[in-house]
Specification:
By secondary structure, the chain is α+β, with helices and mostly antiparallel strands. It is built from 14 helices and 52 strands. It is globular, with a radius of gyration of 29 Å.
Amino acid sequence: MNRLIAALCLLFPLITTAQDTDTLPPLIDRALFFDDPEIAGAQLSPDGQFLSFIKPYNDVRNIWVKPASAPFEDAVPVTADTTRPIPGYFWSRDGRYILYVQDKGGDENFHVYAVDPSEAADGPPEARNLTDADGARALLLSVPKAMPNTLFVGLNDRDPAWHDVYSVDLTTGERTLLRENTDNISGWRFDLDGNLRLATRTAGDGSTEILRVDDDAFTLIYSCSVFETCGPSRFLPGGEQVYLQTNKGDDTDLIRLAKLDLATGETTLVESDPENQVDFGGVMISDVDESMIATFYNGDRLRIYFKNADYEADYNLIKSKLGDVDLNFGSSTDDERLWLISANSDTDPGATYLFDRETKDLTFQYRPRPQLPTEHLAEMKPVRYTSVDGLEIPAYLTLPKGVAAENLPAIIFPHGGPWARDSWGYDGFAQFLANRGYAVLQPNFRGSTGYGKAFLNAGNKEWGDLMQDDLTAGAEWLVEQGIADGERIGIMGGSYGGYATLAGLAFTPDVYAAGVSIVGPSNLMTLLESIPPYWESFRNVFYERMGDPRTPEGEAELKRQSPLYSAEKITAPLLVIQGANDPRVKQAESDQIVVAMRDLNRPVAYIVADDEGHGFRRPVNNMAAMAASEAFLAEHLGGRFQEDMPDDVAARLEELKVDPASVELPEALGTGLETAPLPTPEATPTAGTFAYAMNIDLNGQTMTMDVQRSVVENGETWIITDNVTTPMGQVVDEAVVAKGTMAPVTRMVSQGPMLIELEYTPNAVSGTMTMNGNANPIDAMLEAPVFGDGASIDATLATLPLAEGYETSYRVFDAQQQKVRIFGVKVVGIESVTVPAGTYDAFHLEVTPADGDPARGVWVSVEGRHVVKTTATLPQMGGAKVVSELAEVSM
C-alpha cells in the first residue's frame, strides 16, 4: 500500500484536519463506495430456470449466469469485455440470448450485442454486434413479446442527427430497414404486437409533436409547447390507445397519466398525484394480462399506489419482514410467479431477494456491497428552505454521524441535468463525504424535474442566475441553522453540477472556499455549439431553456452566465475532473477554465481520464479521482481523508494528473478568426458545366452518384448550381454569389420534403428551413461576413490567390446547424492529378474545420482554376470515404 502523501506530493500538500474526529465513525475505505459491487443487476430468465447478474471477470464488470437454484459460486461468465464495464443487459423474450449495450471509452456510441448463454460451458462465448456501424449510436426501441426473435433498434449511421428504424433478427443478426428517418423524428413507439404506431418530433419552436405513423405519412394527433411535457409510454392491448404522460394546459401544473386515442387524439385522465405535490412517477403493468399493478410518485420519498390487491398484500408482507426500506420490483418470470425484489434505504445500498408469489417465500440472494459497514452510514433527511425570491427549494441533507450538527464543514452537491432531480435513498457520494465529516446538501433547485412545470420553467434561462441563487440560499441556510461553518463551505458536482461549481466560485466567490467540477461546462456558447449530433432534435429546446446564441441578446446572456468569462473573480482553489471522450461536455470545456485559472495564477488542479466520457465508469478511475477529491477538500475545508490507497489506484492517479502548464487550447486555426477579414479572390470562376463522378465507400460497400455543376455569369453575380443524383432522389443546391468578392447573396437547397432558402447580408442570414410543409425560420446575426456554403464554396476556393505555401482561413454559415463554422485552407503542394476528364497540374488544398471534423482535400487546376478532385471523410456516415473526380467539362 502507498501513502497518499507519496501519490499526491506534486498535486496537493499533506494537511492536518482541523475537525475533531474522536466521535466520528471509522473512516470507511473509499473502495467500499466506488469499487465494483460484488454482484449487481440480477435478472431472471423468462422461464425462471436461470439467474443472470453482473460481477467482475478479469477485473472488468461482465455478465454471469447460473441455474436459479445453484449457489453464486457455480455461475459462469457469458461475456468477457476486457476494457469497459458493461452498463446494462436483458434477456431476449424467449430466453435464448442475453443482450447488452456497450460503447468505446465513454464515446456514447452504444451498440447492442448478443450472446448465447448456453455456449458458456467452456468459457465466455463470442458476442455478436447486432448494430455494427462505425461511429453510429444505436437506440433500443422495442423488444415485443409477440416477436421473441426480433429486436427493433434505431441507428444513425446514415445521418448522425436522426435514427432510422431497423428490425434485427436475433438468430441471424440480419438487419432490415423499416423506416428511413427523413422527417426529423426524435422517437419511435411500437405497440404490443410489434407494429410501429407512433413517432415524436420536436418542432422548430421547441414544442413536442406526437405523430401517428401511417403507411406513407405521419398524422399529428397531440402536441404540447416547449414549456410543457408530453410523451407516450406503453401501448394498451389492440394498439388503438397508448398511455400518455402530460401536463398540457394552462390549468395543469403536474404531469398526469392519461390514455391517448390514436384515431381521435382525445385523452382520458387516468391519474395524477393524490397528494397534489409531484409529477406522475411511473406505472407498473402486468406482462401477463396488461392490467395495471401500481403507480408511483417520487415525493420526499417514494410513494406507491396499488391497483391490484394481491400485489399490495405481497408488498405489505415483504415490508413486514424487511422494515422501513424502499422496495423495487425487478425482473420476473413470464408467468409473474417469481420476482426479484430489491430493498434499500438511505443508509443501505440494498439487498436482493427472490419472492415466490405462490408460496410467499422470500429468499435472500445477495448484497451488492456486503463489506460496507451500514451501521456507520448517515441518515438522509428531506428539508426545505427559501430562496432569494421566496421560492421554496426541496433538498436532501446528509449530516455526518457521531458528531453534533454544529459548525461543520459542508459541501453543496447540485445534481446534473439540470433537468433531473435528486431523490431519497442511498447515495454513494453523499455517504462518502459525510463519512469524511462534511454536511452534504443536495438541493433540487428550480429547473429540476418532478415538481411540476412551474417549478421547472422557473429555471428557464436562469443558469448562473436564480438557479445559482437557489444553491447560494442553501449554503446560507446551513449557516443560519448553525450546521455549517461559513468559512468552510465547498461546492462539488458533475455535468450541470460541475457548471454550478464553476458558477458558484465565479459568481459568488465569497460563499465557497473550494470547488470540484466534474465534467462541468465552463462556456455555454461552446457547450451549445458542440452538442452531439443525435441531440439535434432538442437544439431549439436548449435555446428556449438556456438562451439562443444566434441572437445578440442570447449570446450576451450566455456569455455573462458562463463562468469562463468571469474567471478573474475566482479566488478559491479548484479541482477539475474530465473524461477525454465526453461527447456532451467536451474536454475543451474543462481545458478552457484550467487555462484561464492558470494564466490568472489561481490555484487549479486537473485530472483527465483518456478512457472515460461523461462521468467515469471504470472503478480504478473513480477511486483515483475520489482520492484526489477528498485530499483536496480536506486541505481546503478541513475534513478528514484516507491517506492510503492500493498501488494500482496510486499509479492510475499519477497517469490521470495533468499539469495545467501543459494544457494548450486549440486556437480555432488562429485567434480572432471569428471576425478576421475574408481572403480576397484574385481570379474569377470558370463558367461552364462540370460533370463529376462521386464514389462513397462505407465498410467496403461502394455507392456511386453523379454531380452536375453549372457556373453561369448573370449580371453582377455568379449562379453556381449542383444537381446531385442520389439513391434517395435528386438534390439541387443553387448559390448566387457576388462578382469580385464571391460574397453570398442567396442559396436554395431542395431534397425531397426538405427545402432551405437563405438570404445573406454582411451582418445576417435569414430564411426558412421547410420539412414536410412545416417551415421554421432561420434568423442569425453574423459577427463578420461569410463565404457561401454548399455548391459555391469549391468555386470560391478556386478563386483565391493560390500558390505554394499559401494559407488562409474563412467562415461559412452552416444552415442545418444554424451556426458559423471556421475553416483553414492551405496549399500543400502542386501535383499532377489524373481523373476521368484528363490529367491536370493542380493545387492540392487541405481544408480543415476548426471544430475538429476531418480535413478535406481539394485539387484545383492551375490552368483554368476549376476543381478537378475532392476527397472527404464523413463522420456523420460512420466514417464513409468520399471521392469526387471530374469526368467531363463543357465550357
